[in-house]
Amino acid sequence: MTMQAEQLVQLVIAALEDLKAQDILTIDVRGKTSITDFMVIASGASSRQVKALADNVLEKAKEQGVRPIGSEGLEGGEWALIDLSNVVVHVMQPATRQFYDLERLWQGAEQSRAQQAQE
């Protein structure tokens, strides 16, 4: 069974909300990169919560027949990355999320393209 990217995003968000993830953000990166269609970024209050959130996303995806391409950082708990092909999930502690600032990186690319189009 293959899930559409949008359906997979909803599954990921539900798995994150189940365990009270904070500041969940979805960024549509189609047309900006060929590695994925969507990025979902969420915060966990502690290393234990980050790990639990990532594990829950993996479990819910596998229940729906979605096999992850890979995952990183599950041991440390500061940042976990789950690659579900069409959707890449980043779960971070707030300080780590602020440091890497993926929102600005990916949304900034969209804004700079829009500004160039207007010029």
TrEMBL record:
Q: Which GO terms describe its molecular function?
A: ribosomal large subunit binding
UniProt keywords, alphabetically? Cytoplasm, Repressor, Translation regulation
**InterPro entries noted in UniProt:** Iojap/RsfS/C7orf30, NT_sf
Q: Does the keyword Repressor apply?
A: yes
Output the Gene Ontology cellular-component terms: cytoplasm
- Subcellular location(s) per record: Cytoplasm
Concerning Gene3D superfamilies, the annotation shows:
Beta Polymerase, domain 2
Q: How does it assemble?
A: Interacts with ribosomal protein uL14 (rplN).
Which family, according to UniProt? Belongs to the Iojap/RsfS family.
Q: What does this protein do?
A: Functions as a ribosomal silencing factor. Interacts with ribosomal protein uL14 (rplN), blocking formation of intersubunit bridge B8. Prevents association of the 30S and 50S ribosomal subunits and the formation of functional ribosomes, thus repressing translation.
Q: What is this protein called?
A: Ribosomal silencing factor RsfS
